[in-house]
């Protein structure tokens, strides 16, 4: 639908509005459209623009010199409409008529300044005008610059809405420079104005109004940082207002973060250093620290050496805030110091520090002599290291330990620079600066990590993880050994304590190192751990054996990191190591995932590096290997690929179906380096196994996968690597009767999947005979299709249809019934595939061609028959073919046809003529009056789709039939018809206006009018409430952009058909219960519909849950409480004591104090709640908050007695009982032995933990008495 028409369509219904500011634009719009129709002109944006310009010109002439700006006047209404139309007008037209437009609207700024609504329309008009103009028009037209200057003045207007609109116009203008300019021509003008305002604010301290203006300007400039011109911004002294000073610092931080904006960082740094806040100015310190951080980072980008020269002074100033009592200041200092450590230390500074302090006397050693420390402090980096080391050891910095650890992490990250050495081999990892300068500090953090009572283990883990990544595992484990194996000969002390917590850190941080370190150290370690596990199991120590098993798994979890860009693959990946991996893959399922991930990483990283375009020397310096060595590694892996693929195939066949995903991915990776001869031999072997399995089917053992399924899955993995000849033989095999018509649903499904993959690889491209054979073969197997293979069969049709030639379109009609009926499948993926197939067929028909009806299967081709003639293929003919299903013999077929037409109408509505759209809508309206609910359900979906997407001129003429047909289901709760009808009426009222909807309801249909009036009232009430909330948010400083977008499913058709942005969906028209499903799924994607790959996404989801172990004690994972030690995000879970925290507690006993609510004493002592229940119009609320009116009221009883009959739910009437002849309520006899009666049968049943039927009579029932009457008992259960 045309967006302009949709916008104007919301204005027209307000012609009869009682509000003049709504009715005036609507009347002008209707009058302009009537005039254009009388003159025979097309109603286009240009016509609207010219007519409104003329209307505004005449109104200004008539009202000159005093312009009427009241609500309902012509000038404000014309400006409002002109601001709406201008964005849709062609830019060439706007430029050609720029002079007359500016002559009219530019002089209006002084006149409109006192009236906010027309002023906002004027600002919106200029916002669209500036974006549409070119560079010449913007720079050569004086009125434009004057108008922009006027708009700049309104950016500090005291009226919030005017100020916000002016700021939006300036931001949009500066963000859209005319091509080919990168910065808008008006950017300098805007910058000069803003700088002038800020200088005026700085020169007028103490004035509240001036301070407020400064705050507005600072907030406004944050939105134009991308378009800010390179002008000095040196107005950051300590201003009169602390809040304004903080805002100035925040503004400076935002400007400095812009990657395209170049500011004089040295000058700004000097200004910031002069305005250092005092130790008590916590409110200014945090933004000042942020500004200082961003200034230094910007300085480092432009002049690294100059930034390094200022590093020592800046570091000292920022360090004074690291132990601040104010949390915000301490965190701001932490961020600033981390940024300084990561970006502002130059490589020259690092090398100078290392050369001044040799490895024999580490800087971080606390026991170093004072001379050594003084020598270390001769460089800024040395001072930083010594200061950081002393602070971590100092008690006075205890509260700042988390910040100090974060700073140390950033410093280690920066000191990954390799130290120059004379080592000849590049394969050995060169010593890094972090190893030389921070080794002792890293060891201290490791010891601190295991100390009892240490609270910041996660921060310490960050430090150690970064150290592993920078130093490498070999060096790191030399500093902090694992010590996981028990050694009874050595006494337990600080040096040999166990550090099993390092294994997960190694697994997540090891990369680009020697694989031989893993084979020499971790493989023997895993073998010893495995032996300890066996001994513990033999001794019956289950918890201990579980601990050794977990440690073994953690050891092998490091294998993937060692395979990531390993520098010694040919030396480390030996034959014994390959045998070990094979043995573990076969015998240790718990280690299989880690080994498979390592094998995949080993190959993929080398393939990626071999195709890198980076300079070889750069790769050698960064990773230790270049493209040449990566190619050599691939050749080595190719030599062992045959054996590895065979092992992986064996593992694949031994896994269950749900565990084959990772194995299949690894097989694909290794098949990519396998030679063509090996691929062909593997294919021949697998196909032979498949044929043997089909000829001699065997029953697999429980839980095992049949051989035929496994071989077909392997063929799917082999497909991308097969030769053309192998692909053709596989294609013929998949079309055979043994596969496509197999009684095994799994074989069918996989054969269809193979055929789909083959077609996608282009096997059928340009082969008309084979395509015809495939389509015929698919049609022949329709009777033998199993339920589980329908989705893959439909997908095959979807990929085959585009390959049809223009002379083979006669196959489409024969395939249509299956596609249409598949839209009603229970399987959601099958339904989605059916919709895709219908759309693909429609696009194929839309490409043109000839549909030979004589070749269509089952078509009447007798002489003289209309169906014998050939027709031209197009969308209309396609829709007509599908519409034949509307005369189907079953409701299921009719419903499926309506659903299919809905999908096609949504997809091809722009290609269908209006007459066909109108005919389709009129036809579906007939089905709304059907007595079959399945048909009506699909028809309601079609009507909703038509109401939202079809042009107004097509839907509105159908209202006399459509509205009464919908009202017929407005009281039906089954299948949620009532709520669906409400949503449709709401959309009708919103788009077409309530007058047309109410007018077509019929004067005699009183109930229908009530329904529509109720929906209208609820809609208006919700609209007012939303507007009130929006105004409240704006007054509080919020923005319209802060409103969360409505959730979508990702499919436009699903959003229109099933989604709803209804404002009345929380209740019904008569206060009934809302639609449960709509309420339950609102705010989140509907399962299976919004996320067609939901299952896959769920499997691929990764969480940050880790096992929390206190004091490094072994944890029994078999214990029931082990899951409680997981550090997952449990905000959604109800926490213990959550409800109790709402009540007061007695300080002495700790008991909860629950205060009684004061009783209602008004209204005769009944209270407001009681009156709501017992009054004539009383109501109650259900568990979900829905309103239920009280039907048994005095007023209703009087009306029922007067009418003499009561309307029942099914439409029948019964005589209303008189108050004098009420029958006594019949007392139902107590049926003894009722607990033994069957639910659905007529006899009794024997249940577990219960006596036999009628084995005894409970004396409590027989002997009990009730006051006021005698209880009747029935032993036989008969009346």
Automatic annotation (TrEMBL):
<keyword id="KW-0539">Nucleus</keyword>
<dbReference type="InterPro" id="IPR057860">
    <property type="entry name" value="HEAT_RRP12_N"/>
</dbReference>
<feature type="region of interest" description="Disordered">
    <location>
        <begin position="1018"/>
        <end position="1279"/>
    </location>
</feature>
<feature type="compositionally biased region" description="Acidic residues">
    <location>
        <begin position="1062"/>
        <end position="1073"/>
    </location>
</feature>
<feature type="compositionally biased region" description="Acidic residues">
    <location>
        <begin position="1032"/>
        <end position="1042"/>
    </location>
</feature>
<dbReference type="InterPro" id="IPR016024">
    <property type="entry name" value="ARM-type_fold"/>
</dbReference>
<feature type="domain" description="RRP12 HEAT">
    <location>
        <begin position="324"/>
        <end position="654"/>
    </location>
</feature>
<dbReference type="GO" id="GO:0005634">
    <property type="term" value="C:nucleus"/>
</dbReference>
<dbReference type="Pfam" id="PF08161">
    <property type="entry name" value="RRP12_HEAT"/>
</dbReference>
<dbReference type="Pfam" id="PF25772">
    <property type="entry name" value="HEAT_RRP12_N"/>
</dbReference>
<protein>
    <recommendedName>
        <fullName>Ribosomal RNA-processing protein 12-like conserved domain-containing protein</fullName>
    </recommendedName>
</protein>
<feature type="compositionally biased region" description="Basic and acidic residues">
    <location>
        <begin position="1101"/>
        <end position="1111"/>
    </location>
</feature>
<dbReference type="InterPro" id="IPR012978">
    <property type="entry name" value="HEAT_RRP12"/>
</dbReference>
<feature type="domain" description="RRP12 N-terminal HEAT">
    <location>
        <begin position="29"/>
        <end position="199"/>
    </location>
</feature>
<feature type="compositionally biased region" description="Basic residues">
    <location>
        <begin position="1018"/>
        <end position="1027"/>
    </location>
</feature>
<dbReference type="InterPro" id="IPR011989">
    <property type="entry name" value="ARM-like"/>
</dbReference>
<dbReference type="InterPro" id="IPR052087">
    <property type="entry name" value="RRP12"/>
</dbReference>
<comment type="similarity">
    <text>Belongs to the RRP12 family.</text>
</comment>
């Amino acid at each position: 639908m045309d967006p302009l028409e949709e916008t104007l369509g919301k204005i027209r219904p307000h012609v009869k509005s009682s509000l003049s500011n709504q009715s005036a634009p609507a009347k002008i719009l209707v009058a302009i459209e009537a005039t254009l129709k009388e003159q025979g002109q097309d109603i286009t944006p240009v016509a609207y623009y010219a007519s409104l310009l003329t209307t505004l010109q005449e109104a200004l002439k008539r009202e000159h010199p005093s312009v009427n700006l009241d609500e309902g006047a012509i000038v404000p209404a014309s400006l409002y409409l002109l601001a709406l139309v201008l964005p849709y007008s062609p830019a060439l037209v706007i430029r050609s008529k720029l002079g007359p437009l500016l002559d009219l609207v530019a002089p209006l700024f002084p006149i409109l300044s006192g009236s906010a609504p027309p002023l906002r329309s004027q600002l919106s008009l200029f916002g669209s005008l500036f974006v549409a103009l070119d560079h010449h028009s913007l720079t050569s037209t004086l009125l434009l610059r004057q108008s922009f200057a006027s708009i700049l003045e309104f950016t500090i207007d005291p009226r919030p809405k005017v100020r916000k609109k002016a700021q939006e116009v300036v931001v949009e203008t500066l963000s859209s420079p005319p091509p080919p300019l990168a910065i808008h021509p008006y950017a300098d003008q805007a910058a000069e104005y803003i700088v002038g305002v800020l200088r005026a604010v700085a020169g007028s301290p103490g004035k509240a109004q001036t301070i407020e203006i400064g705050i507005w300007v600072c907030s406004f400039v944050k939105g134009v940082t991308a378009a800010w011109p390179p002008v000095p911004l040196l107005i950051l002294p300590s201003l009169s207002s602390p809040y304004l000073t903080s805002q100035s610092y925040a503004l400076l931080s935002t400007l400095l973060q812009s990657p395209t904006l170049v500011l004089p960082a040295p000058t700004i740094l000097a200004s910031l250093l002069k305005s250092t806040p005092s130790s008590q100015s916590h409110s200014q310190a945090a933004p000042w620290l942020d500004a200082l951080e961003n200034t230094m980072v910007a300085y480092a980008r432009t002049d690294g050496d100059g930034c390094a020269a200022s590093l020592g002074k800046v570091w000292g100033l920022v360090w004074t805030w690291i132990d601040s009592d104010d949390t915000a200041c301490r965190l701001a200092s932490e961020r600033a110091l981390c940024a300084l450590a990561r970006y502002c230390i130059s490589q020259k500074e690092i090398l100078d520090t290392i050369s001044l302090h040799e490895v024999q006397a580490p800087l971080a050693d606390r026991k170093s002599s004072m001379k050594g420390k003084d020598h270390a402090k001769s460089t800024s980096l040395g001072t930083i290291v010594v200061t950081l080391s002393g602070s971590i050891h100092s008690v006075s910095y205890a509260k700042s330990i988390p910040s100090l650890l974060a700073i140390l992490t950033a410093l280690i990250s920066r000191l990954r620079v390799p130290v120059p050495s004379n080592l000849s081999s590049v394969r050995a990892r060169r010593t890094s600066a972090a190893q030389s300068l921070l080794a002792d500090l890293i060891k201290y953090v490791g010891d601190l990590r295991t100390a009892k009572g240490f609270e910041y283990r996660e921060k310490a883990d960050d430090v150690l993880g970064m150290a592993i990544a920078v130093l490498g595992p070999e060096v790191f484990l030399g500093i902090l050994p694992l010590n996981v194996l028990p050694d009874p000969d050595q006494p337990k002390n600080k040096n040999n304590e166990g550090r099993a917590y390092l294994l997960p850190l190694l697994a997540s941080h090891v990369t680009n190192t020697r694989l031989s370190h893993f084979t020499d150290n971790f493989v023997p370690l895993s073998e010893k751990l495995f032996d300890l596990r066996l001994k513990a199991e033999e001794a019956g120590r289950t918890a201990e054996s579980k601990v050794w098993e977990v440690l073994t798994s953690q050891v092998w979890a490091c294998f993937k990191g060692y395979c990531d860009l390993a520098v010694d693959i040919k030396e480390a990946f030996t034959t014994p190591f390959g045998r070990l991996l094979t043995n573990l893959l076969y015998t240790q399922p718990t280690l299989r995932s880690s080994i498979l991930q390592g094998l995949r990483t080993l190959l993929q990283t080398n393939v990626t590096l071999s195709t890198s375009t980076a300079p070889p020397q750069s790769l050698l310096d960064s990773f230790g290997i270049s493209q040449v060595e990566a190619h050599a590694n691939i050749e080595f892996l190719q030599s062992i690929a045959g054996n590895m693929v065979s092992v992986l195939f064996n593992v694949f066949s031994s896994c269950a179906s749900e565990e084959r995903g990772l194995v299949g991915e690894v097989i694909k990776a290794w098949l990519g380096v396998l030679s063509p001869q090996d691929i062909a031999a593997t294919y021949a072997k697998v196909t032979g196994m498949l044929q043997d399995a089909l000829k001699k089917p065997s029953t697999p053992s429980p839980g095992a996968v049949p051989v035929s399924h496994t071989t077909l899955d392997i063929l799917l993995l082999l497909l991308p690597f097969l030769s053309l000849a192998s692909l053709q033989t596989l294609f013929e095999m998949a079309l055979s009767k043994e596969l496509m018509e197999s009684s095994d649903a799994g074989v069918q499904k996989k054969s269809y999947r193979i055929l789909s993959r083959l077609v996608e690889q282009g096997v059928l491209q340009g082969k008309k005979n084979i395509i015809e054979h495939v389509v015929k073969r698919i049609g022949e197997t329709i009777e033998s299709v199993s339920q589980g293979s329908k989705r893959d069969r439909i997908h095959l049709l979807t990929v085959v249809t585009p390959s049809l030639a223009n002379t083979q379109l006669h196959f489409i009609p024969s395939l249509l019934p299956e596609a249409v009926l598949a839209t009603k499948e229970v399987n959601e993926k099958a339904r989605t595939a059916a919709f895709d197939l219908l759309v693909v067929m429609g696009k194929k028909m839309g490409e043109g061609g000839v549909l030979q009806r004589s070749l269509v299967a089952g078509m009447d081709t007798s002489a003289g028959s209309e169906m014998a003639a050939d027709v031209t293929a197009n969308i209309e003919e396609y829709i007509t073919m599908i519409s034949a299903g509307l005369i189907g013999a079953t409701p299921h077929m009719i419903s499926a046809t309506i659903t299919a037409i809905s999908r096609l109408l949504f997809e091809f509505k722009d290609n269908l003529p209006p007459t066909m759209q109108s005919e389709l809508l009129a036809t579906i309206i007939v089905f709304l009056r059907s007595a079959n609910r399945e048909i009506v359900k699909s028809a309601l979906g079609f009507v909703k789709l038509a109401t939202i997407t079809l042009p107004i001129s097509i839907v509105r003429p159908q209202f006399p039939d459509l509205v009464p047909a919908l009202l017929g289901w407005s009281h039906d709760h089954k299948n949620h018809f009532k709520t669906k009808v409400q949503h449709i009426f709401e959309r009708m009222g919103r788009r077409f206006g309530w007058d047309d909807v109410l007018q077509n309801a019929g004067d005699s249909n009183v109930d229908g009018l009530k329904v529509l009036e109720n929906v209208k009232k609820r809609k208006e009430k919700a609209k007012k409430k939303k507007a009130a909330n929006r105004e409240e948010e704006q007054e509080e400083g919020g923005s319209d952009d802060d409103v969360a977008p409505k959730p979508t499913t990702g499919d436009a058709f699903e959003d229109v058909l099933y989604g709803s942005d209804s404002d009345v969906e929380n209740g019904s028209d008569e206060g009934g219960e809302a639609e449960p499903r709509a309420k339950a799924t609102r705010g989140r994607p509907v399962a299976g519909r919004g996320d067609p790959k939901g299952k896959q996404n769920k499997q691929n989801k990764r969480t940050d849950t880790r096992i929390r172990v206190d004091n490094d004690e072994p944890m029994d994972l078999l214990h029931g409480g082990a899951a409680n030690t997981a550090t997952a995000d449990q905000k959604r879970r109800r926490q213990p004591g959550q409800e109790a925290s709402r009540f007061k507690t007695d300080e002495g006993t700790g008991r909860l104090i629950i205060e009684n609510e004061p009783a209602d004493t008004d209204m005769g002592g009944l209270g407001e709640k009681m009156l709501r229940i017992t009054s004539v119009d009383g109501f109650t609320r259900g568990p979900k908050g829905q309103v239920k009116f009280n039907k048994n009221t005095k007023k209703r009883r009087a009306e029922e007695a007067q009418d003499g009959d009561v309307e029942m739910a099914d439409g029948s009437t019964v005589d209303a009982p008189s108050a004098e002849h009420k029958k006594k309520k019949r007392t139902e006899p107590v049926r003894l032995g009722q607990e033994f009666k069957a639910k659905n049968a007529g006899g009794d049943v024997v249940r577990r933990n219960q006596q036999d039927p009628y084995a005894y009579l409970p004396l409590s029932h027989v002997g009990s008495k009730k006051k006021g009457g005698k209880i009747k008992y029935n032993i036989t259960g008969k009346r």
